[in-house]
Fold:
Amino acid sequence: QAQLRQSGPGLVKPSQTLSLTCDISGDIVSSRSAAWNWIRQSPSRGLEWLGRIYYRSEWYDSYAESVKGRISVTADTSKNQFSLHLNFATPEDTAVYYCARDTGRVLDSWGQGSLVTVSS
Amino acid sequence: DIVMTQSPDSLAVSLGERATINCKSSQSILYSSNSKIYLSWFQQKSGQPPKLLFSWAFTRESGVPDRFSASGSGTDFTLTISSLQAEDVAVYYCHQYYSVPYTFGQGTRLEIK
Structure:
């Protein structure tokens, strides 16, 4: 299994960008057999898949409709990490955010989780 | 989107007794070309990320005790703990990865009676 370590601010002001980074060890972000996901969890929405990025000769991404237009997931091969950027944050984006690897679509490795609060 | 519905929402079982959690998908999550069911089961303990227990509906992950089993077909699936242990107290989730957006059940909270 890969080891994923998340980092980023725990408090974001409304209308600002929520950004988190996930450092990967035990795998590489450009692996052609893995994809790199962001998932969040809140009492009101449960576990919610947000988006993913993966490399198959070129980079591909896909996003949940609920955040499409505000979200981007990017990869940095030089640092072996991937990141979540969620623009125009609102209090409804307050949640515990997880990064996760999927291999063959199975979510087999998860980060430790990051509580992000959107509040002024 | 594929909706995953679990039942019950919470469950209290005596130590050593059987616990059964159900999950229903709103449409088939069987991929006919490879005959695989795109379903996982996760266990989440307080303050921790979800832990993968089963993938492909029935494949137990390494290190998962054999008192845990998974079954089902079509759109109805079941996670069973044959003899509940204290360390099994957690919230359990089913998850479909048949199509994007990936979706999860709402969770079943398992407690000791």
Remarks:
- Chain B has a mean pLDDT of 97.
- The first strand of chain B starts at residue 4 and ends at 7.
